[in-house]
Amino acid sequence: MAKLRLPGSRRQAEAADIEEVHEDGQGAQMTILEHLDELRERLTKAVLALVAGTLVGLVFAGDVIEYLLIPNAGEPVNVLGPTGSVVNYFRVSLLVGAILAIPVMTYQILMFVLPGLTRKEKRILLLSLPAITLLFLIGVAFAWFVLTPPALSFLKGFQPHIFRPEWVADEYLGFVTALLFWMGVAFETPLVFFVLALLGIVSPAGLLNNWRVAIVGAAVAAAFITPTVDPVNMMLVMGPLLALYALSIVLVVIGRRISKVEAS
Hints:
Elements (H helix, E strand, L loop, with lengths): L8 H15 L8 H37 L15 H30 L5 H38 L12 H30 L5 H6 L1 H15 L5 H33 L1
C-alpha cells in the first residue's frame, strides 16, 4: 500500500533520504572549507587523546625511564643543562601518551584520509583498531628486546680504545624512544594495508610494482628512526621494515580475496 504524504512532507522525506545516503557513505560531497573543518575536528580529537595519554604518562614516566636505563647497566645518565631532566621526563611521558592514544589517533587519521565510507567499512575500521594497537605494542617490544640491545652494544663498544662512552639523557633517551615509537608505527602498516585491501583501495600488483620505492623508503625511514651515521643500526632497522612490507603484500592478497568473496 502506497504511503500518503502530508503537505510539506515531500521536502522532509527528500532531506531524510539525503541524510541516509550521506550516513552510508555514498555520494557525500564536501567543500574545501568543510574538509578543513573536518580536519580541524579530527586533529583536535587526536591531540586531546594524546594530551590525556601524556597526563597518564606523567605518573609513570619515572618508572619507565628507570626501565629504559637497564641497557645502560641501570646507571643514571647525565644532563647538560638545568632543564635537561625536565625535558627528558616529558619526552618519555609523551611516548607513553602516544602509545595510549594510538587507537584514537589512527582512527581519526583513517577516517579523514578515507572519506565517504559506508557503515560496513567504518565497522571494519573500528574492528581493526584493537589489532592495530596490538601490533604497535608488538613493534615496541620488538624494538626493545631485539633491536635495542645490539644497537646500543655496537655504539658502546665502537673503538673503545679511542672513545669512552658517557651518554647524556638527551642523546640516549632520544635514540631509544624514537626507535621504540617509530618501530611500533611501522608494525602497524601490514594491518593498515590489509584494511585498505578489504576496502578495495590497494592491490598486490601495486605494491609489487613499487618494490624499488619500498626499498628507498625503508632506507630513508631507517635513517630517520636511527639518526646515527653507522650502517649497522640502519640495517638493523631497514631489515624489519622490508620484512613488514613483504608481509603487507601477503595480507593485501588475502584482503582482496576476502573482499571479492563478500562482493559475490
